[in-house]
Design goal:
The chain is mainly beta. Helix content is 0%, strand content 50%.
């Protein structure tokens, strides 16, 4: 059974950094695309970044380009999201998710497995 466990959230001031991690288990790691999504109170869940575990492809939302970096550690079956220059609008619950194909997308449709989320709060 696929399991995803996020960690690394917290509270920071604007301009600060956080590093989120998502540990995956229960499936053939390299056959999947992993994504990070976030949801602020009262707003829809939105895609932040995705990465193809079997290659080098990544995809970012325009709002986080040049500030966030998604990466993988195959040996540890972990995907990281390094978040720098954080802004108050980055506040939300951050989720990692997995889909079994090679499609790099930021749409929630098609991601079959989701973690429980980790809270990120950025104060001004």
């Amino acid at each position: 059974q696929v399991q995803l466990v996020e960690s690394g959230g917290g509270s920071v001031q604007a301009g600060g950094s956080l590093r989120l991690s998502c540990v995956a288990s229960g499936y053939t790691y390299s056959s999947y695309v992993m994504g990070w999504f976030r949801q602020a109170p009262g707003k829809e869940r939105e895609g932040v970044a995705s990465i193809y575990l079997g290659g080098v492809g990544t995809y970012y939302a325009d709002s986080v380009k040049a500030r966030f970096t998604i990466s993988q550690d195959n040996r540890k079956k972990t995907v990281h999201l390094q978040m720098d220059s954080l802004k108050p609008e980055d506040t939300g619950m951050y989720y990692c998710a997995a889909r079994r194909d090679y499609i790099l997308t930021l749409k929630t449709e098609g991601f079959n497995y989701w973690g429980q989320g980790t809270q990120v709060t950025v104060s001004s």
